[in-house]
Amino acid sequence: MMFVHADSSGETCPEKKVLYKLISGLHSSISMHIAGDYLLDESRNQWGQNIELMYDRILRHPDRVRNMYFTYLFVLRALTSLLSATEYLEQAEYDTGNHAEDLKTQSLIKQLLYSPKLQTACPVPFDEAKLWQGQGGPELKQKIQKQFRNISALMDCVGCEKCRLWGKLQVQGLGTALKILFSVGNQDNEGDQTLQLQRNEVIALVNLLNRLSESVKMVHDMGPDVERLMEDQIAKTSAKPGRLRRVLDLAFSFW
To answer: Which family would the database say this protein is a member of (predicted)?
Structure first.
């Protein structure tokens, strides 16, 4: 996994730990969607939930579940908790050519940005003001941005057009969330620089939050039952509480 390199003391810096969690969380979210809407029988075009795949790729790995929750909170915080992003998204033009739809979009964006439930549900998973600072900060930011461009370019090799589109969109959304977090340090160190986002970045960011929200909901709604069913099949003698239940209890202790 990229970004995971130890320094001379053998320890991984906080920024690289954050990046590892974000990539892992995005990967887990994509896997949840694949397992949640899976082609079970090609001859009959039958789609449904593949619980074995869901368990094997995500639910049996507590760290992957935790990283998915972390990525969700990271994107949510970038979108709703940082003043620069909130002000920008509230004032942005959502011009689709349909006046009624534009007004509806603006209303929905404001509901998202100022939702009391989301504001209280988004703890501070890290202090973004302290990340990517110091002498190596600017260089690390450039490396991260380059890595995300490389990931997006690699997506062009994916054969499935739908998979390629969703993958590139979500990678861009995560890159946009990082851009917003990067702007916190830039405003402090480089003067009053207003956050600027392109239209496609806003679209990618909102779509990523939607996909992560759906993944988190699937884990919350289905996870314990899937884990129980699969672990009963694998080892009926196990008397320990499910690992996913422990992870969920820990995750929701933040809410």
So the answer is: Belongs to the EROs family.
238-248 burial by CB neighbour count: b if 16+ within 10 A, else e?
A: eeeebebeebb
Q: Provide long-range contacts, Cβ within 8 A and 24+ apart, for 51-57.
A: 51/222, 51/226, 51/229, 51/230, 52/230, 54/222, 54/226, 55/226, 55/227, 55/230, 57/28, 57/31
pTM over 0.90? The answer is: no
Given a contact cutoff of 8 angstroms between Cβ atoms, the answer to whether 76 and 85 are in contact is no
The sign one gets for the Cα dihedral 79, 82, 83, 88 is: negative
pLDDT, one tens digit per residue, over 178-209 is 888 777 655 554 444 567 888 888 889 999 99
Closest by CA position to 189, among listed 132, 140, 143: 132
Alpha-carbon separation of residue 89 from 14, 153, 173 (angstroms): 28, 27, 14
Q: In the chain, where does DSSP find H-type helix?
A: 14-36, 51-54, 62-80, 83-91, 99-113, 116-121, 137-155, 161-189, 199-234, 243-252
Decide: helix, strand or coil at residue 46.
Answer: strand
Place of tokens 């090609």: 42
- Alpha carbon distance 151, 159 (integer Å): 15
Reduced 3-state DSSP string for 200-231: HHHHHHHHHHHHHHHHHHHHHHHHHHHHHHHH
